[in-house]
Design a protein that fits this description.
Rossmann fold, alpha/beta, 54% helix, eight-stranded mixed sheet, cupric reductase (NADH) activity, oxidoreductase, iron transport
């Protein structure tokens, strides 16, 4: 859907601060939006079009000429056109010589061509200076005032002076330039907008796999077992009861998986006696997506809280409670109050609420707007110290909830362990390993290694040289 910018007047059209003239090839959505934004910031913009007379949607004050005439008026030319239409530029080689060509194009899929669009353009017009920029900013973001999510502009090019000229434009538009180096990085810059949550894939795969497996496990040990052994249909549990078992189990397992890779890394450093050796690729990737794992775990914890809050309103719960009271009245008896049960119930609820509180704090601290206003020590304290405290509280919540149920053989349906026991395996392993690693004798060695100490410097250097890279 095309946006009509013809009635839009630049905010600073009368400003005394004027910049150089910039040429834009292309009158599509992005070209028009970028041109309007540049005019608002004091630039003089001339559009190059194959049909200047038909360009009626451009902002007021913009000059529209043919490609050749427009290129002659500016030293910077922004190409807001697709790679498929670059061929006409070969007929403008004499005019484009010495000009700065800013390539803003993107492809339809990752690695669509052997080389990047910017490198292809540099080969097509060898006497021009090509700079890759603006491909990570959308036309909508330019029209709506460049929101925070779209403020960063990746820039790469072989000529430093040309990049500085583009950097000045980016800053004048209120955006943040990020120099990515030479055009060798342009392919990665072009692939960036096409990526669909790359760091979320592994956490989502793990969460989905765990959810399906644990749901089927609970379905087997609850609904199917009851129907086979007693002939009772309790399939209604599939809507609330079973999900309210699955969510906390998956959440606790994911929280344990957040801190497990860091412990594995510490063990590897202890074993190798150096920090100058690369971790395995799977461990590197695992550690990079810990934030996403934690946020997914927090989402499952939220679901557990919401499902727990609606339990008193369920028909089955209200029926069971009313039926229990009626039976007591008929039998003229009351259930004695058990202080031990009251302590257990209150304890696991208190631990659950405290654990969820710290869960939320961890999630809030991971937000860029919050993490940017705390120093490294504060961020590490929250994510590490409070993170392990959260894991300890949630594990304690589950242990007290289960209490001594694992000792009751009758609860083991088809000799399978209780579902809550599955959630305790990884968190307990993490807490035990962490307890060992924080012992003074072990912690001192790990601290020395992370400060640069090596048990066998020569072998470490040989191993690093063999790997071809140094991992700090």
């Amino acid at each position: 859907m095309e946006t009509d910018l013809s009635n839009m007047i630049p905010l600073y059209a009368g400003s005394s601060q004027k910049y150089d003239t910039v040429c834009i090839f292309g009158t599509g959505d992005f070209g028009r939006s970028l041109g309007c934004k540049m005019m608002q910031c004091g630039y003089s913009v001339v559009f190059g079009s194959r049909n200047p007379q038909a360009s009626s949607l451009l902002p007021k004050g913009a000059e529209v000429l043919s490609h050749r005439e427009a290129a002659q008026k500016a030293s910077i030319i922004i190409l807001a056109i697709h790679r498929d239409h670059y061929e006409f530029l070969t007929g403008l080689t004499d005019v484009l010589e010495g000009k700065v060509l800013v390539d803003v194009s993107n492809n339809l899929k990752i690695n669509q061509y052997p080389e990047s669009n910017a490198e292809f353009l540099a080969e097509l017009i060898p006497k021009a200076e090509v700079v890759k920029a603006f491909n990570t900013v959308s036309a909508w973001a330019l029209q709506s005032g460049t929101l925070d999510a779209s403020r960063q502009v990746f820039i790469c090019g072989n000529d430093h002076k040309s990049k500085e000229m583009v950097v000045d434009i980016v800053r004048a538009l209120g955006l943040t330039p990020l120099d990515q180096g030479t055009l060798l990085a342009s392919k990665e810059v072009e692939n960036y907008p096409l990526q669909l949550f790359p760091m979320w894939r592994l956490p989502m795969y793990i969460a989905t796999g765990l959810t399906v497996c644990i749901f089927l496990y609970c379905l087997l040990t609850d609904v199917i077992y009851t129907y086979v052994s007693d002939g009772r249909d309790i399939s209604f549990r599939i809507a609330i009861s079973i999900p309210n078992k699955v969510f906390p189990i998956v959440s606790l397992i994911l929280l344990g998986l957040v801190y497990l890779p860091g412990l594995i890394a510490s063990i590897l450093q202890l074993y190798r006696g150096t920090k100058y050796s690369r971790f395995p690729n799977w461990l590197d990737h695992w550690m990079l997506c810990r934030k996403q794992l934690g946020l997914v775990a927090l989402a499952f914890a939220f679901l557990h809280v919401l499902y727990t809050l609606i339990i008193p309103t369920r028909y089955y719960v209200r029926w069971h409670r009313g039926n229990s009271i009626i039976n007591q009245i008929k039998k003229n008896e009351t259930s004695p109050f058990e202080t031990k049960s009251a302590w257990r119930t209150d304890s696991y609820m208190a631990l659950g609420m405290l654990g969820f509180l710290f869960y939320v704090i961890l999630g809030i601290t991971s937000l860029p707007s919050v993490s940017n206003v705390v120093n490294w020590r504060e961020f590490r304290f929250v994510q590490s110290k409070l993170g392990y405290l959260t894991l300890l509280l949630c594990t304690g919540h589950t242990l007290i909830f289960g209490w001594n149920k694992f000792l009751d053989v009758s609860r083991y349906r088809w000799y399978l362990p209780l579902p809550y026991m599955l959630s305790l395996v990884i968190p307990c392993i993490v807490l035990v390993i962490k307890f060992v690693l924080i012992m003074p004798c072990v912690d001192k060695t790990i601290t020395q290694i992370r400060q640069g100490w090596e048990r066998n410097p020569k072998s470490a250097k040989q191993s690093t040289f063999k790997n071809g890279k140094i991992a700090v």
